[in-house]
Give the backbone structure.
Amino acid sequence: MLRISNIKMTIDESPSIIESLVIKKLKIKSSDLVKYYIYKESIDARKGKINFVYTVDAEVKNENKVLEKNLKDIVKIKELRYEDVQSGTKKLDKMPVIIGSGPAGLFAALLLAQRGYNPLLLERGLDVDNRTKDIEEFWKERKFKNSSNVQFGEGGAGTFSDGKLTTRIKDIRCRKVLEELVNFGSPEEILYSHKPHVGTDILKDVVKNIRNEIIRLGGEVRFDSKVTDICRVNNEIESITINNEEVIETNIVILAIGHSARDTYEMLHDRGVKITQKPFAIGARIEHPQELINKSQYKEYHNHPRLGAADYRLIEHTSNGRTAYTFCMCPGGSVIASASNDGQVVTNGMSEHARDKDNANSAFLVNVTPDDFGSEHPLAGMYFQEKYERLAYELGGKNYNAPVQLVGDFLNDRISTNIGSVKPSYEPGYTFVDLRKCLPGFVIETMKEALVGFDRKIKGFAMDDAVLTAVETRSSAPIRIVRDEETLESTNTKKLYPCGEGAGYAGGIVTAAVDGIKCAEKIISQYASMK
């Protein structure tokens, strides 16, 4: 294959001309181009102009003849593809069990099913269709269900999110994840977009399609199946218990429980599985008019149909030694109620694929370290999260209203009285409060200073009537279930594979899915297929 980089076109030119630009750059006849596909698309917004820049991989006739021309921006590459690990030879007497159907669990189960290992995938929540009904009932009527919510259910927390697929890791498994997502219904542009996303409306169908494929290949998927106990004998898994009654014998468990399965964290700690504290972040969601962000990022091109809703990523190191940053930015999206326990308020962000709602929102977070937890208990960070989620619930009125404060009032320590140009998108509702009562003092101090810095980067970010909705506490897990770097097993429980975001080893859909694949590979490399 040949990789052709730096293929530029103006914002008004159609991608349909890429083929002709490739032929021109290669200085070949159209009949010599066998095939091509877009490897990467990016936007160059420098110098007051906006151009699209493409990198394209192409197969051509007489490749060596083209290379002899020593053309600029043309290099020979090996077409990299995910390669299956070789199966082991040990006999697998009992089916491997995956706990949790978020990205890590789904992709671990998918790979095991594809290779003939007949996995059992257990999910404490419900299938995505029934889960959606329960979530909508919570948002509209305040009827909360502990077992079926934004955190628990098919697809995990990522199903109700923006569906961002950006990642900083360089791993060929990332490509496998994206290709599988396309196979199961995601838009093809996620394979090359500089900031790929799916959207919650499409993700719902994608996760359902993956589940059906796991079943078709011989796996089993069970919902409303909460793992309430594990049995460890001589530091090895012997069995698990579902819903306090059904015991399943197994000696291989992939633990992909997500970052909100607090009762499971407590059970694992009580059973002696090694857990340590981990830093995370806490703060609120901030909402602006999407039009403000578009104009800031794209200037006079902000309404151009090829650009869509703009996003941002901001970071500020403040004078108190803390860092504030934006996270999980949702262009044209909504702030959503994301509690996973009664009597707590948690916020998150969500967008559909079109990203066409009026508001932009993002988590606005401040780093928290184990020194802030006030305890050396392995689960102290989790209890720290719970404290502020309960305060938010009480401050909001004990009815799942979220605490809200306008930015201008937040900076001046006033309780807001009226909404301005930004209507809070959070459902079921909101209550005007002083956010100092539901966030730590150091978080408030850091956020105030950061707002000034952010406003220098995006003019209007600190606008008086931008909306802060509290609290945002679930950006990452507050614990790490310690595992061996080579085997990926728990350091004190053999054949237990802590996996994904909930175990403290991932930070997003793609990285979690990759981690699930890695854990599945460890099993495949030891055992023979069950078929």
Remarks:
- Residues 331 and 360 are 5 Å apart (CA to CA).
- The chain has three domains: 2-76, 97-276+480-524, 279-472.
- The chain has a mean pLDDT of 96.
